[in-house]
Amino acid sequence: MKLTLRPSEMTRADVEALREQGLDDAAVHDVAQVTGFFNLYNRLADGLGIAAEPDW
Fold first, then answer.
1. Residues 1-47: tens digit of each pLDDT
2. d(CA 56, CA 38)
3. pLDDT attached to residue 56
4. Is 3 within 8 Å of 10 (Cβ atoms)?
5. pLDDT at position 53
6. How far apart, in whole angstroms, are the C-alpha atoms of residue 31 and residue 2?
7. What torsion, rounded to 10 degrees, do the Cα atoms 15, 20, 26, 29 define?
8. To the nearest 10°, the Cα dihedral for 8, 15, 24, 34?
9. What is the distance between the alpha carbons of residues 33 and 39, in angstroms, rounded to a whole number?
10. Cβ density class 10-49: b for 16+ within 10 Å, e for less
11. Model-level pTM?
12. Measured distance CA(37)–CA(31) in Å, rounded
């Protein structure tokens, strides 16, 4: 949630907390990328007024 809601507040401690849960550098990178892609998509959809497909 923090990466989405308050990304400027992310610190090394947040990454370390993920590592403590067993994530390696590649997994932390994947989490950041997926979060970023979803945030981008949601902002584009909201900004352009794109509605979700009915099946979603």
1. 899 999 999 999 999 999 999 999 999 999 999 999 999 999 999 99
2. 15
3. 74
4. yes
5. 87
6. 12
7. -30
8. -30
9. 10
10. eeeeeeeeeeeeeeeeeeeeeeeeeeeeeeeeeeeeeeee
11. 0.75
12. 10
